[in-house]
Every structure is written in C-alpha cells, then in structure tokens.
User: Which sequence fits this backbone?
C-alpha cells in the first residue's frame, strides 16, 4: 500500500480521536497521524496519500488551524497526490451547516491538484443542509460524534474499505 498520513485539525480532541481511528484502520504509524499545526511542505512531500480531517465550526467553517494548513497545501501543491477528506459536525444543533468545514477542505485540496477519493452517500444521515453534499453524496466521510456516535465505527470501517480499493 502507498505511504499514507492522516492530518487533522481538532479544537476539542474529537477530530483527533477520529483521525487516530482512521489511521489505525489504514495501518498508519503514529508518526503519520499529524496535527495540522505541524503541517509543512516536507510533510506533504513525504506522503503519497493524505487523509485530511476537520471539525466544523461557526457557520460551517473548517477548524481554525486548517486556514494555515490550506496555505501549505496550496503552496506545496498536491499534483500526483491522492487525497480523501473526513469531517465531524453536530447534525442536530448545527443541522443547517452539518460538516460544512469538510467542503472547504475538500475544495482546497482539489484546487491544489489532488486526486480526490472516498465519496460517501448522504443516505442514513439526519441533517437539514450541508455544503459538503453534492448530488446526494458527501464530498467525503461525515461523522457526528455528538448525536450518531453509535454509527461512527461502522461508517469509518466502510469508508476505509472503500479507500483501500482506490489505493492499490
């Protein structure tokens, strides 16, 4: 399998925990699970596959540390890289912006030249609106540790299996 890292932005620890679960299922070593605060061009260049994760804040924005992280991604460029995105949000309290931060991160990676993989059907989710949904699918994996934590493990497992098919 290709050289994979998981890069996350987390304010409360939720997204970090999800990044660790995803990394474990992908066989990523601990040093390949990286806080976006530590993202550099060297990190980007070291890996073939980047799994990017963000929590969602405010009116659907990425976690704050990702704004500097996106600058690194764009300056370094993601041509020849494979990227998948995951996000976490609160589908009940923020039903109209559920996982919206994930859309920002997805768009930034795509604009930086990445090959994007890992779309997820929006079926089975409860929310009113999300910028992260295009044609009935999330731009990648959406997770809700507040209201649907009982679905997290199965959603991650299915997503990781799908990713593995696209990484061989």
Assistant:
């Amino acid at each position: 399998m290709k050289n994979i890292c998981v890069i996350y932005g987390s304010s409360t620890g939720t997204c970090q925990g999800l990044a660790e679960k995803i990394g474990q299922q992908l066989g990523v070593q601990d040093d390949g699970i990286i806080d976006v605060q530590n993202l550099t061009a060297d990190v980007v260049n070291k890996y073939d596959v980047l799994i990017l994760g963000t929590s969602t804040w405010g009116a659907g924005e990425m976690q704050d540390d990702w704004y500097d992280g996106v600058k690194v991604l764009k300056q370094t460029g993601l041509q020849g890289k494979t990227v998948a995105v995951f996000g976490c949000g609160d589908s009940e309290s923020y039903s109209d912006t559920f996982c919206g931060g994930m859309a920002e991160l997805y768009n930034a990676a795509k604009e930086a030249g990445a090959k994007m993989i890992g779309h997820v059907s929006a079926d089975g989710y409860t929310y009113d609106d999300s910028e992260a949904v295009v044609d009935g699918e999330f731009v990648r994996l959406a997770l809700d540790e507040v209201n649907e934590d009982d679905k997290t493990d199965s959603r991650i497992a299915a997503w990781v299996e799908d990713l593995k098919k696209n990484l061989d």
About this structure: DSSP finds five helices and ten strands in the chain. The beta strands are 4-9, 33-35, 49-57, 61-62, 82-88, 115-116, 120-121, 133-134, 137-138, 141-143. The two ends are 6 Å apart (CA to CA).
